[in-house]
Design brief:
Blueprint lengths: L14 H11 L15 E9 L5 E3 L2 E2 L3 H9 L1 E4 L2 E5 L4 E6 L4 E9 L6 E6 L4 E3 L6 E5 L6 E8 L2 E5 L1 H8 L3 E5 L2 E8 L2 E7 L5
Length: 200
């Protein structure tokens, strides 16, 4: 009588085991090379990043900032899906909007020589420019803008409201794709925010 083949059970690692694996894989002060890690998918884990940047595990906020930072360094995006990846594990998590929040920025220079350097809630920094573009989505019903800046490896940060208001003060009107736009200069690039004709 032939033996029946039992399907292999997928064991999803816990947040603690993921943190331990990430700690072992982290070397030096730079970010781990998650782009080089392609382990088998272990399933989804009950972890969520809310729109305000708060990380939740099993429905409870993760209160330890060093652990949140550690998890943020092993975050990987594939299409519209997000994963925590170590050399031996890959689990899916839920991201409500963007995985990071830009909570502050510094500005230097003027006009087309301006540079805007953003800091995220998990300690990353990025200077907006061709490799770190700023984009703005507008709610089709309310028209409310949601501004984002690319931080690293197709992972974006939602620019928080107070920072966005400060950015508006640094904006200028420029010609972009044959249309007049109000937008921002940074890193030698102009990022359109809203058509000039729509401004009050």
């Amino acid at each position: 009588m032939a033996k029946s083949i039992q399907p292999q059970k997928i064991v999803t690692p816990s947040a603690e085991s993921l943190a331990a694996s990430a700690s072992r894989a982290a070397k030096g002060k730079g970010l781990p090379p998650v782009h080089l890690w392609n382990p088998e998918f272990c399933g989804d884990i009950d972890m969520r990043i809310a729109r305000d940047g708060t990380w939740y595990y099993l429905g409870t906020p993760i209160g330890r900032a060093p652990m949140v930072r550690l998890f943020s360094t092993i975050l990987k995006r594939e299409g519209d899906s997000y994963f925590l990846v170590t050399p031996v594990e890959k689990v899916g998590i839920t991201v409500d909007d963007a995985p990071f929040v830009a909570v502050d920025f510094s500005a230097s220079g003027d006009g087309c020589d301006q540079s805007l350097t953003f800091t995220t809630n998990v300690g990353d920094t990025a200077t907006a420019g061709p490799e770190h573009p700023i984009r703005v989505e507008r709610d089709p019903e309310t028209g409310e803008p949601s501004p984002y800046v690319l931080i690293r490896s197709n992972l974006e940060a939602l620019i928080d409201r107070k920072s966005f208001y400060r950015l508006v003060d640094l904006g200028s009107h420029e010609k972009h794709d044959g249309q007049n736009w109000f937008g921002l200069w940074s890193g030698g690039a102009f990022f359109p925010i809203i058509p000039s004709e729509e401004l009050p």
